[in-house]
Amino acid sequence: MQFNSFSEFINMGGYGFYVWLSFGVSALLLVILLISSKADHQKIINNIAKQKQREDKLRQARELRKQQASSAQDEAEQATS
Amino acid sequence: MWKWLHPYANPEVSYHFTGRLLPWFSALAAILLSIGLVWALLFAPADYQQGDSFRIFYIHVPAASLSMGIYFGMAIAALCSLVWQLKLADASAAAMAPVGAVFTAIALLTGSAWGKPMWGTWWIWDARLTSELILLFLYLGVIALHSAFEDKNLAGKAAGILTLVGSINLPIIKYSVEWWNTLHQGSTVSKLGKPSMSLDMLWPFLFCFLGFAMLVAVIVCYRFRNEILARNSIRPWVRELVSARATHK
Amino acid sequence: MTIKSELTEQAETSLESSEKITMTHSQMKSLSYRDAFFLVLKRDITIALRHRDDIINPLLFFIIVVTLFPLGIGPEANTLSQIAPGIIWVAALLATLLSLDRLFKSDYNDGSLEQMLLSPHPIFLLVLAKVVAHWLITGLPLIFIAPLLAVLLHLNEQSYGALILTLLLGTPVLSLLGAVGVALTVGIKKGGVLLSLLVLPLYIPVLIFATSAIDTASIGLPYSGQLAIIAALFFGSLTLAPFAVGAALKVSTN
Amino acid sequence: MLFDDLNVEINAGDIVQVEGPNGSGKTSLLRILAGLSQPYEGNVLFKQTAISQCREEYHENLLYFGHLPGVKGEMSAEENLSFNLALHGLDTSETHDDLAHVNLLGFEDSLASHLSAGQHRRIALARLYQSQAPIWILDEPFTAIDKQGVASLEQRFTEHAEQGGCVILTTHQDLLAISSDKVKKITLDYAFE
User: Which residue of A has its CA nearest to D191?
Assistant: First the structure.
């Protein structure tokens, strides 16, 4: 142990400000990076889920269109007969 | 010869593989970093010239060498993706860029905070700090180019070309800056010297270095997995994973 | 024939041509590399000469930037002559950067870039022709005007030779490296600012060695060492940059 | 993702019309066929070789006409055409006749910047009358072209196919002058499954 008391440890032989500034800023940056990298995971998953929903809707709309088209055709055929 | 690599070139396999690696990396990073940092802050001796400000060294030097190392890694990934069309290599390069930029920024900030008590000024056009600054610009260029493209596959290719051009240029820049520095250096400025390290300084340094390297591995793994998901959003395996994990439907 | 579309984009298509076509094709004359190079070079220069703003504006920019420095720093001859090499070179970097946009942008916007990429010539050759044209249009005029600006900045008389030689060897490097940056950003809507972020860091070695050559010349020492390094940068970028530009253009037009 | 499981073989003498609503990937398909874009998966083969492996040979055999005509405003109609022809190694001595085919006589020396969008497209299309490339890939060639021009182009396509070339095109119009049994159709539709 290089320091005799806690205040001496904080003081760092007069260089406390610079030492703690360096350690503090580095820790802050790394924690932000780590957390944002982890949080992106859920964000991406939610985005993909949304995209999936959108595609489901489009597919339904197309099915509906097809059904309408075929029923209209049936009616037309009935009318001619 | 490369056949054993093939399963890892499959996005699904590498997604799950890195997922299994993550806890190990995280544990290693936590252990190494806590030992290294406690040792560096509490037990390592103060430098006889620089006093306790020397303790910044234990972050500054690992961050600086990792920032160069990550760029080297990106260049290799970019080369693989351009030569063998490996999409995963693209994803890994994209995952590395922001991590490298943050480590470069840390190296710069700690270098500056170390320089203030040593040189009496926050910034000095020291060769190492200057090339670190230029490295930061290179990183920011790669990241900006990445975000400028909407299509992530194209973004990866474009950023890969830029990374390769930058990696050819980087040694030239480093050399030119060092040369420029010795040319213009006044006699009053002393560089951040590498003191001959005693063993009780070397050990905590090694722990810190390896700890930070593991931390890089952890963050890169997280980002790599994100990139894989985003690039394979239409694959059935991603779709299954999404329907299991999405928070709101 | 209806194609059912599914999850992934997959095109498996073959184009076959009969022997008859192959025969008509063999009668076609093929352009030699030299012809193709000069064809593109001539076209780009013709266009630039008909659109003179593109030549004159970067030049005016160069002159104005250089004249701003004495106004900002003060007219003291000693100070000016000390910083003259740096000012002239930084202004040259910026002027080149400003003119880079036209290298591929208008061709990209009107589709002629696409047509060039689809021509049966190696892409690096066409790229090289375009870069040479760009240098002739923007780099060469800078070299002619630089000595005049050096007079305004009281550049040491012994340095003029070094100034011209470094510009002669250095500006092509700027055009070549810049071309990589433009090729990467040509498809991006607001690529201008991004371009400077990508390209300027790559220009640093040229700046360092060129200004140092001029400084060395001003105290009467030989500067062939710096010149040799700039020459090495020139040949290095001449051989490598066109391939990088070709690859980047393929990405940008995708 | 736009399309999948597309397996087409296009042979000499074929006229292929790619159909589909806006945004269904017609242009993407043509760009992939021309080698301008890379498909996410899959290959385009030319004489059994992937086109990325034989780029220069393939492009010697290809004429592509995209949304953008590739005409420079600073050059005259004739200069534009001869540059385009020369770049592809074609004869530049008959540019007058070619421009006549697309109804641009009298405009040879006008700077293209003074001409209309439709005229720009005509300048680009004039290349069709000199081209010896067997494969033509044309994205909306009839846009901004008048009726007479369309008829003349269709006639040119038929000639080309009869000489053993192939034409792949997208258009929203029906091909009138070409009998429908000669035209192969590829229909694209939105789909995600």
Answer: A59
Question: In sequence order, what are the beta bridge partners of D64?
Answer: D137
Contact residues, C window 10-29, toward D, CB-based 8 Å cutoff: 10-18, 20-22, 24-25, 27-29
Q: Which amino acid is at C189?
A: K
Least confident residue range of B42-51, B92-101, B135-144, D60-69: B42-51
Mean pLDDT to the nearest integer, B70-78: 95
Q: Are C1 and D32 in contact, with CB atoms under 8 Å apart?
A: no
C–D CB contacts, 8 A cutoff, strictly below = 215
Residue A1 lies in a domain: no
The answer to whether D104 touches D122, Cβ cutoff 8 Å, is yes
- Give residues with Cβ within 8 angstroms of A31, minimum separation 6: none
Q: Give the mean pLDDT of B108-115.
A: 91
Give bridge partners of residue D168 from the DSSP assignment.
D16, D137
Both structure tokens of D138: 């044309």
In a domain, A12, yes or no: yes
Task: Give which of B134, B150, B152, B161 to mutate to test C binding, by max C Cβ within 10 Å.
Answer: B161
What is the C-alpha to C-alpha distance for residues D63 and D46, in angstroms, rounded to an integer? Answer: 14
Residues on chain B touching A7 (C-beta within 8 angstroms): none
- Total tally of structural domains belonging to chain A: 1
In this prediction, the answer to ipTM > 0.90 reads no
Amino acid at B40: A
pTM for the model: 0.87
| Three-class secondary structure assignment of chain D | CCCCCEEEEECCCCEEEEECCCCCCHHHHHHHHHCCCCCCEEEEEECCEECCCCHHHHHHCEEEECCCCCCCCCCEHHHHHHHHHHHCCCCCCCHHHHHHHCCCCCCCCCEHHHCCHHHHHHHHHHHHHCCCCCEEEEECCCCCCCHHHHHHHHHHHHHHHHCCCEEEEECCCCCCCCCHHHEEEEECCCCCC
Domain assignment of residue A48, given as a range: 6-80
- Asked if the structure places residue A56 within a domain, the reply is yes
Helix orientation angle between B152-184 and B57-84, rounded to the nearest 10 degrees: 130
What residues are paired with D111 via a beta bridge?
D76
pLDDT tens, chain C, 254 aa long: 333 333 334 445 555 543 334 434 444 456 688 888 999 999 999 999 988 888 899 999 999 999 999 999 988 989 999 999 999 999 999 999 999 988 898 899 888 999 999 888 889 999 999 999 999 999 999 999 999 999 999 998 889 999 999 999 999 999 999 999 999 999 888 778 899 999 999 999 999 999 999 999 998 899 999 999 999 999 999 999 999 999 999 998 88
Which of C13, C26, C250 to probe the D interface (max D CBs under 10 A)?
A: C13
CATH number of D1-61+133-193: 3.40.50.300
